[in-house]
Amino acid sequence: MQKSKRFLQFIKSLKFRLILLILIIAIAPSLILSVGILNSYESRAVSIRESEILSQAKILANQIATSEYMSLGNNLESSTIQAQIDMLTTIYDGRVIVVDNNFRVYHDTYNLDDHKMIIAEEVIRSFKGEDIIHYDSENHYIEMTIPISDPNDKNSTIIGVMLISVSTDNIMINQAYLRQIATIIVVVVGIAIVFFAILILLYLLKPLAKISDGIAAIKDGYGEDCLQVNDYSETIQICERFNQMLGRMKIMDDSRQEFVSNVSHELKTPLTSMKVLADSINSMPDAPKELYQEFMEDITNEIERETKIINDLLSLVKMDKSAADLNVSTVNVNELLEQILKRLQPIADKQKVELVLESFRPVTAEVDEVKITLAITNLVENAIKYNRNDGEGWVHVSLNADHQYFYLKVEDSGIGIPEESLDHIYERFYRVDKSHSREIGGTGLGLAITRNSILMHRGAIKVHSVLGEGTTFDVRIPLNYIA
Hints:
Blueprint: H1 2-12, H2 14-67, H3 69-72, H4 76-92, E1 94-100, E2 105-108, H5 121-127, E3 132-136, E4 141-149, E5 158-167, H6 169-204, H7 206-220, H8 233-282, H9 289-321, E6 328-332, H10 333-351, E7 353-359, E8 364-368, H11 369-385, E9 393-401, E10 405-412, H12 434-439, H13 446-456, E11 460-466, E12 470-478
Parallel strand pairs: 7-9
Antiparallel strand pairs: 1-2, 1-5, 3-4, 4-5, 6-8, 9-10, 10-12, 11-12
Helix pairs in contact: 2-4, 2-6, 8-9, 9-13, 10-11, 11-13
């Protein structure tokens, strides 16, 4: 089982695939070349054989025509030509048939068709003056049909036809021998290629093994903080990308640890306060009723603070888990803003802050009403709470749109945000003024919730602030939700 698993892993490995690729690249051309050479050899050898036989046949046909071989019968000259025909058949391992002008076999070197009539297409065409050559590659023989005519005869009268059939078995034997040699060469070359390919690949793939070992060392906790394998430009790029990812993971891990620490601290603080208040009450059994009421009111405030922190944390967790699960519907944004500001008006009245809504045009958008309401509420509520306390503060909310987005602007005349804090205000539990935030009930989670909600809608949020003068948040959200 273990061996089969290792074999499957090897089959799936880059090393095996590279070896296979090298084999295909090296062996395939060799096979194609060997087949091409063998076929070329056969074609070339047959062509040479045809040329040789045709040349000999032409000479013999001329001799037959000029000697009146087919009209004189058996004489010395006839015997000489007969000997040449027999020699031709012996040299080329073939058969010669001489046909007279009556389509009758005058002579057959195999003595099988003597004096028989031959009326074949090739014979008829040769009587018209054609030289016909045919190679039968399946049965391995060459057939020729040569007209016999006197070259000195101006009319080129054809007095007969000579049929020649020659075996090409010796060519096939040579080709088979060459094929064996080619096969041996290809096998030897293949083995050599595999051997050298393995050596080369072991060398070339060493950087990948280094990367793997480096990652394993980092994972196990005793490696360096970054990966450095500079053998190839590709490994340099891989290491750079890995180190960037590792850096982001460390930042995320630090952020997670800080978040957990902040959550623990934020949840622990109200509990500590409640315990101190409860201990104080228990240590004063004869305390007046007014003091009891004051301490109980403080405990109630701490419970409300704890509840708000927990609710905000739950809102963040829900947004993280349901980033791709928005309950999108078509919403009248003008009416939604009016409802939000109506709910927040009592808080503004208590803070003596003027709350103004300005809508430039009717806006309808595809949004998750619950999440976008939470985001806008946080922005406006922060603008109210962190405003001036001299009775002249104001918050201005404006709504506009074009063909693609709607734009929400929340301006206030509040305390402002220091420039060095602008990059951190969306971080969870981050507070610009911790004492003032706790004083007004802030948890440090509102802007994180707001930003998450806007990003889930494929929107954007920007902030501009001047310390002591006020803050402006600009929000842009698509009218049509992009999944």
